[in-house]
């Protein structure tokens, strides 16, 4: 059975809103203000950790809260206007989000993309359309003619109206995005997939606000307060180590909190969080204020990894050249959404996507460790994970759950088997596996020069003939015959696109994964899956409340 290729409902709703309102584009330029914060991230952390007293001071004693809020308001206002929670600020924040997502979209990398077959069925029932909304990728194509599309749209809108979707909520959210979108949207070029991706990649206002407030407060901390305790644990191979690469502070907090809350011996767990410049202060501040119990955490900035440069890393080289082409050939003719931006920094995809590719450099990032559990930031941990360190990988490098069982995620779905380099080296029926919760044996990795294998394939894919987007296809090639299948209950997938996962399967899972576009922090999240995630957020937290983040 082929998966449907239709206009996702988000796009339909957004288009409907656009058609109805015919709203004008109001370009706002809050992006610069947002980005300038990144400049301050070169302050080096010193010793000392945050004391209980500091924490109280930052979070505020009850009698101080009002006072502090006033001060904070002044400070925030002075420093960074988009934090204000009025309408204008909301629009500005949204625009900043759009700016960010433009940069992502211009990148050749998509976090959740897959190779699509040429001949997919265009008809869809409602479940399929929801799936397609969840799984849509930039390389999916539009229906062939406008009339076909109009028909498909009409049918889907009719279905959407009497089914589970709250179109209004989605349209409201997406209207602002759509309004500021330029020709590409109106030219109807790949907009269906584009819009659902935009929704998926845009950081919502609340999280943006949270990140900015935390950033401000981080840089107001005296340098000696910025250090995390227990740094002696970071390289101790007897502890349980996690790699978490994220630019979303709320998502990262859920991963860490859920892991610790369900750990039998929290003091034995160590989190290695890597983020980007933009979120470095916020991530530090969050975990200084909310330390993960007795566990250990530290935060690094991917831009500080000097060894990760374009002379070493093929994907960076490819990105930089693509970014340059974009800059020189498209800047004056804003044909694409990405070209409308005037901020070169936003167009440099390195900031946003290198975090994705960092998974191919684990021994370089953690030279002293022999095993590490890689976690995506769109997961929730529901059980003690230490059993994973006992699993015998049988000399393999990667422990992962396979995905070809109930559906059809085999190699030919992700890779171009018309290309001899693929056809001659791989089995099209080989079972795919999932990123999101992977045990990596770093000793075997080094022995087998996994990073070298990855570089080889990434170099061969310069013209994108082997695969289109993402890290899974190169991962499948790199870890071919080096992947040990883990029991499926360790990692249950699809909460970001599949509306029909068995409840018992979710409840039994050690880790649930919101892969797909319907992330739990977005309004388009599937409501029935959201509680598994929101459970690990303290909505009474001063910062969370202050940014109007609510269930
Ligand atoms: C930080 O701690 C180390 C040892 O724990 C000490 O030698 C060093 O002087 C400290 N640095 C500062 C700035 O206090
Ligand atoms: C680039 O990375 C390589 C190895 O990863 C390193 O030897 C080199 O010094 C780096 N170049 C710069 C300019 O940092
Ligand atoms: C697949 O590979 C073949 C051979 O290199 C190439 O001609 C074809 O364009 C590729 N398909 C896609 C969709 O890139
Ligand atoms: C972690 O989650 C629990 C349960 O929801 C919550 O009570 C706690 O405040 C959270 N901890 C942090 C540090 O956010």
UniProtKB/TrEMBL annotation:
Coiled coil: none annotated. Residues 119-147 are annotated as: Disordered. One of its GO terms (biological process) is cell wall organization. It is a single-pass type II membrane protein. Residues 119-130 have a biased composition (Basic and acidic residues). Pathway: Glycan metabolism; pectin biosynthesis. Its EC number is 2.4.1.-. Pfam families: GAUT_1 (PF25557), Glyco_transf_8 (PF01501). It is an enzyme of class 2 (transferase). Keywords: Cell wall biogenesis/degradation, Glycosyltransferase, Golgi apparatus, Signal, Transferase. SUPFAM superfamilies: Nucleotide-diphospho-sugar transferases. GO terms for molecular function: polygalacturonate 4-alpha-galacturonosyltransferase activity. GO terms for cellular component: Golgi membrane. It is found in: Golgi apparatus membrane. InterPro entries: GAUT, Glyco_trans_8, Nucleotide-diphossugar_trans. PANTHER family: GALACTURONOSYLTRANSFERASE 4-RELATED, POLYGALACTURONATE 4-ALPHA-GALACTURONOSYLTRANSFERASE. Belongs to the glycosyltransferase 8 family. This is Hexosyltransferase. It comes from Oryza punctata (Red rice).
